[in-house]
From TrEMBL:
It comes from the Bacteria. One of its GO terms (molecular function) is metal ion binding. This is Phosphonate ABC transporter, periplasmic phosphonate-binding protein. GO terms for biological process: transmembrane transport. It comes from Trichodesmium erythraeum (strain IMS101). Keywords: Metal-binding, Signal.
Amino acid sequence: MLGLILKKNLFTVLFLACLSLVSCSNSNIQKSENKANPQKLVVALLPDESAATVIQNNKGLEMYLENKLNKDIELFVSTDYSSMIEVASKGRLDLAYFGPLSYVLAKTKSNIEPFAALEKDGKNTYQALVIGNAEAGINSYEKIEGKIMAYGDQASTSSHLIPKSMLKQKQLKAGENYEEVFVGAHDAVAIAVANGKAQAGGLSKPIFTALIERGTIDKNKVIIIAESKPFPQYPWTMRSDLDSELKTQIQQAFLELEDKAILKPFKADAFTLVTDQDYDVVRNLGEVLELNFEQLNK
C-alpha cells in the first residue's frame, strides 16, 4: 500500500514537472512571437520640435496605423537624436522616423531597415540651407568668417552635416574660421539667427519654409545665403526581426497613405520606397567631413 502511494506521488511530481516545462516552453514561444508580432507598436518620431507638439501633430498618424494594422500604437519622442539612436539600439522602437544622418548612425548599432521615405512634388530628395542674420548683413559665406554659426543636433543631416559640408567647400572650418554652437532643433537655429544670437545657421529648407509660412520667423530678419544640392529624404525604419507579414503590412500602410492632414506634419505628398543604399551619399559626406561617427553615436 505504501509503495503504491509512493508511486502515485512520484507520478504526480513527474507530471507536474513536465507540465511546468511545457508551460515554460510555451511562455518562451509566446514571448518570441510577441517580439516579432507585438500587439503594441512603439513608433518614434524625430525631436525636431517639442515632444508635445510632435505628438499632437501626429495623432492622425497614430489613429491611421491603429486602424490599418489592428495594433495599439504608442508615439514616442526622445529628448534628442542621440537618445533616439540609443533607444533604437536596444530594440525598443518598432518603427522610427529618422533623419538621413541619424539613420546612418542608428544603422551601425541597431537591427533596423528603411522601408519608406518622404515624397514631395514627385521627389524623394530635399535640401538644406545656410542662412544669415539680415541686420548684421550676413549675406555671403565670406561674412560668416569669425562669426557664430548655429547648428541643430550633432546627429542631424540638414541642420549639421550638410551645412557644415557647404561651409567646408568654401574653406570655412568650425573652430578655425567660425565658432559653432548646437541649439538642438531646426526651429531653434532659425530663431537664433533671426534674433542675432547667432550670425548664421544651417537647417532644412522645408522646415525653414514652414517656419516662415507660420510666422514663427520674420522673413525680413534672415537671409538665405545658399541652398544645398538634393539629398535623400528622411526614412521610416522598422525592426528587421519583426514578423515578415507584419513588415509587409506596415510598408503598405505607409505607401498607401493619402490623407493630406496626416502627411502635412511631414511636409510630404506621399511616402515612397527606399533602401539602405540610398543613404550611401550621407555616409560618404560624413567621411569627407571626417566626422567621428562613433563619437556622434554616444
